[in-house]
Amino acid sequence: MAALLQAAGSDPVVGAALSTSVPAEYRDLIEEAGNTCPEISPNLLAALLTQESQFNPKAQSPVGAQGIAQFMPSTWEAHGIDGNGDGKRDVWDPEDAIPSSGKYLCTLAEEVKGVPGNKQHNMLAAYNAGAGVVRQYGGVPPYKETQEYVQAISAAADQPAGGGGSSTTGEAATAINAAKSMLGTPYSWGGGNANGPSKGICCSPNGRSGTAITGFDCSGLVLYAYAKAGISLPRTAAQQYAASEPVKPGKVRPGDLVFYGTSAFTTSASTSVMAG
């Protein structure tokens, strides 16, 4: 049975203070913007940016959201700021978009402060669906996409800091067998959780949607397999990468993971060799 090797991306990932994977070039921006107001934190902002774009400053959604923080043009026009003081507001520039996202979260927190329920959840729901919708429903609206969005960001923001440890031989075997038991399960972008296959979300960078497919994506299968072994992992590949410890090629063992990508924000997890 083949061991699974974790391969580092080409960009360093910094995670001493932030429990969510953050490319080094964005760390200071997120630390500063994440302290814009008491309602947000660097970890929360990092988790939001991971969910929105995987830290890809060139990301563009099928519905027109733009940049690392996925601002719609009308929202950017109203709330974008010149974060780096170069005289222009550029949604594609993380030095503008990251401070803008922190400021916008604080604005939304103020707009929904009178809504019952978890204040942080309401704020995140407003970022996804709009403050008016949150006020209309008296909390997180009954939209599957928004509910999953809030849950994913909140869970990632609450991840404890520090890297992952080594699994035992028994845990590795349990994870591998759990993954093998799902052979033949359909691929679903954003699909899968600790309980098994689930409908996915929309949309992948190439526009692929998992909303009508019950199954797993790569990191979803990893999450499920290791949950069966009693090991809790974050949801996305980039977060799993940040929570792992590098393994030298000569030290690989069954249960180690393979990650690939040109940078931290494009990191993907390969699960196809888990049972190899």
Features:
single chain; 276 residues; mainly alpha; two-stranded antiparallel sheet; 6 strands; globular; disordered N terminus; disordered C terminus
User: SSE order in H/E notation?
Assistant: EEHHHHHHHHEEHHEE
- What's the β-strand tally? 6
Q: Which regions have little confidence, pLDDT < 50, spanning 5+ residues?
A: 1-17, 271-276
Which percent range fits the helix content?
25-40%
| Strand ordering within the main sheet | 1-2
What distance separates the N and C termini? 6 Å
Oligomer: single chain
| Overall average pLDDT | 83
**Beta-strand level of the residues, as a percent range?**
5-15%
What Rg do the Cα atoms give? 19 Å
The main pleated sheet reads as: 2 strands, antiparallel
Structural class: mainly alpha
Overall spatial form: globular
Total of DSSP H or I helical runs spanning 4+ residues: 10
